[in-house]
Amino acid sequence: MKKFLASLLIIFVLWFAIDRIGGMVMNWVTWHTNEAVSQKICHIVSAVDTDILLLGTSRCESHYLPSIIRDSTGMSVYNAGMSSSGSIYFQYATLAHVLRYHTPKVVVLDTGESEFAANEDDQSALTFYAPHIGLYPEADSVFYWLGWMGRYRFSHLYRYHALSNVAITRLFMSPDPNIADGYSPIAEPPSYPDDLGEVQQPLPRVEKKIALFRRFIRCCKQHRIQLVLSISPSYSLPSPHYYDVLKNIAEEEQLPLFDYDTSGLYTDHPEYFYDQAHLWDKGARLFSQRFAHDLKAFIASSAATANGE
Amino acid sequence: MLFNSLAFLLFFPIVCAIYFCIPSGSLRWRNLFLLAASYYFYMNWEPAYALLLLTSTVVTFLAALGIAHYRDRRKQQFCLVASLVLNLTILVLFKYYNFLTTNIEAALQACGVGIDIPVSKLLLPVGISFYTFQALGYSIDVYRGTTQVERNFVTYALFVSFFPQLVAGPIERSNNLLPQFRQPRSFDYEGAMKGLRMMVWGYFLKLVLADRCGTYVDAIYNHLEMHNGGSYLVASLLFPFQIYGDFAGYSLIAIGAARVLGFRLMQNFRQPYLACSVGEFWHRWHISLSTWFKDYLYIPLGGNRVGRARQYVNLMVTFVVSGLWHGANWTFLCWGALHGGLLCLEKSLGIGRRTYRGLSRLWHWLLTFALVCFAWIFFRADSVSDAFLVIKGICLGFDTPFLRFSDFCIIGASLCLLSLYGLLQEHSRPLRLSPVFQHLAIAAMIAVITLFGVLDSSQFIYFQF
Which residue range is the domain that position B66 belongs to? Predict the structure, then answer.
């Protein structure tokens, strides 16, 4: 039995060494790969320097063209939207990472009711930030919040497991030329969505997520960042009360909320949509012009209010 | 409790530590502890269903006592039949009820009779087919006199519920496992290390190979309407490795875990995809189930001792039942029938009896692999019509497949490792590494699993059976 325990100890020591060395190798891979998600995350944790920061899920990533918004507002823009990141956990970690070294003037959070819904899967995107654990305590706090920190402290290799295969295989490939300033266009679909579906009813909400959303808002206020909430269009029929939680919080906190979804923007144009939730590039360009116009007007009116005009 | 869950990674070392802290002379306490641990393991999923496990245990235990008690063959037969009927009734009620009623309804509707039979909302108890067959095997063995009746209930209950092989096999034989619970065991270093190596290799097969293949296969098979024949072909070529990695992985973890505790379970897989005939495939795939069906169904039906036509009927019956054992769906029945048909064909052509060498061996290996892959299409598809859609797509709608290069790199590397391991095992040339390298290999394998494994505690496919 003693021999077996000694063997287990030797295996553990060897594993520990492999894990730590492998962790260092994977860290290098993460920073040098041409894989889109890893590249974007590395950019977010180290190189965002724009006036406007766009946050959200795949809907943000493929709906807002930074170039169009920049041309309209005259402010630099980066789209930090990330596919499969549909929860406030990810958005909070993104904001925290950026605030470590840069304070944008405006943060646009493309959000929705699902932001507060009970869905364990939407936490999985947070693992994209696991390679950067230890960089900034405020960003790490989300991992503690979810009770995930133990596993990442135990194994450094585990921090990379979400993207390890793609990060390694794309190490020697060229980066995706279509991605610009974080915007990832969606190609035209073979067929457009043709059914608006049933009227969407509000989803059960998770108080923990609402609490983190409020913390997100406080964080923006502390850093004097103008937070703008936006709900980009979808090819669906949300009920008039679908976004009540979000609208109530926006009203309480006196935040601007641009709701393009309840108003049914583009529901008469299925040819702009890739699927029910996403605009393809053509729709995104049109929407970005509309959004840029609204944002510009809001910024101008805010500035006028601040100047006492 | 799943083998690939954090709960099991805590549970197993704790069980081992307590088990070996109990003096090896205290066999009764050791068995009692293992029994409690096994029931805890099972009850982690759905506590109430442990009652089914207990019922099956009690019924077969009493039936075996009855068989041993009576000298009259008819009374012995009664005990055996009672055990068979009670156990199979439970199995049918929980596993086949909805399948039967749906098909009866459809058949009656076709005859113009519209009836509405209530649907069962009971969950399928995990591992019910496995432990029921193991317990029934014991009853039959006692009836045949090939195994000694067990009079200690704890020992017998442990035989039925031994946690490493409780939910997905191997389906153990009473004359292999039961005697091991009767003998005092001391810790065996070599055995424990071998068990540990098996467990790590099993985890690799499940988490790196099977689950990585599964992400692609599920993406295609769950959305057939969105993909073309090329993708169907790639998915159908990957599924055999998914199911092998999943099930052989589970079996290895089970055999390894038992080995660490000092028990030897039977081998369940022996490089099945290196088979050169379908018959050989079944000597290598799910060995514990195929030998169970051979011993308790095929041979009692007459086996090979009857005329040729009857042999074919026996084979077909055995494989159709084997297909149905896997699940209450026509797809499994088709899969079983397909294998039965192929075996009949091989038997009629005398294929399984020859030894092939060189190019002939390569040709037979390729043909067998293609046939087995073809049959797996029925096994994986959600319905028979889906299976035909896949086959039609592969034959007529072939186009550039949807590929995920990053996943395929890992799958390719895993398959290379698996092939190397398989070929070494096949030619009885196990790797002889020094202890340091053995330790290093285990540590490296754990690191590979940590980095490349799909660590979302997905279920083992065979749990549903």
Answer: 27-184
